[in-house]
Write a structure and sequence with these properties.
By secondary structure, this protein is mainly alpha-helical. The protein has a single domain (5-187), classed as Rhodopsin 7-helix transmembrane proteins (Rhopdopsin 7-helix transmembrane proteins), CATH 1.20.1070. Helix content is 72%, strand content 5%. The protein has a two-stranded antiparallel ribbon. Strands 3-4 form a two-stranded antiparallel sheet. A hairpin with a 3-residue loop joins strand 1 and strand 2.
Length: 188
């Protein structure tokens, strides 16, 4: 395994996998609660709640990647499992932050622009399209990026496969910068 995993003992790797999968299982329980509450209670169907409901499905893919855990890196950087996990971990955490950002936009529109539930609902399809395209394109393109010197763009980063350490500049620019930007925009 690349990315520093060889510095950890088998017991440490097992413990990390166990913790990661338990946390993922708790997240799955949270998604089930969100979906059930949305389906069962009319009070949970307001504009912000609808965005949380939609985002729950995006989070399910993110959790799929974390449930794969160390199985991705163990299968090898070029393996389909590692590449799939890298794709999921590139697309869905970014999408999650963008969903949080549009929730903040909705609050702004409600408080300062007096949007009602009907006007906000019209924006949902636009949100879905923009967030999916913005997060999908780089994640998909990176599946095909590889060089003889650096290898595939997705590779082991100890706990899972994501943008490999040899491509660290891309990890910063394409992963962390959008997350930092959206996070800081929410606080403004």
């Amino acid at each position: 395994m690349a990315g520093g995993a060889n510095k950890l003992s088998e017991q440490q790797l097992y413990t990390l996998t166990l913790v990661e999968r338990i946390a993922s299982a708790l997240s799955i329980a949270g998604i089930v609660v969100i979906i059930c509450a949305f389906a069962a209670f009319k009070q949970c169907r307001g504009p912000i709640h609808r965005l949380i409901f939609i985002n729950a499905f995006y989070n399910a893919f993110d959790i799929t990647a974390t449930m794969i855990s160390l199985s991705g890196p163990a299968s090898g950087d070029g393996s389909p499992l590692c590449q799939f996990q890298g794709f999921l971990l590139q697309m869905f955490p970014v999408a999650d932050v963008l969903w949080t950002f549009v929730m903040a936009v909705n609050v702004y529109l409600i408080v300062f622009r007096r949007y009602d539930a009907v006007a906000l609902r019209k924006l949902e399809s636009k949100y879905i399209i923009v967030i999916t395209i913005v997060s999908f394109i780089p994640a998909f393109v990176f599946l095909f990026v590889r060089t003889a010197e650096k290898g595939p763009m997705y590779g082991s980063v100890t706990l899972w496969c994501a943008i490999a350490p040899s491509w660290v500049l891309f990890r910063i620019v394409i992963y962390y910068v959008p997350i930092w930007w959206a996070s800081s925009s929410i606080r403004l």
